[in-house]
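User:
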Amino acid sequence: MGKGDIKTKRGKIRNGSFGKKRPHKIAKKNAGEPVADEKKN
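Assistant: Predicted structure:
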């Protein structure tokens, strides 16, 4: 297990792939802005 093993974090880094062991950073939705779904009068 190591650089050649795709199931490990190191293997994912070398292969350039993502998955459960090496997830993408999820972009947070606009937390400070008001919700735009509300109807304006």
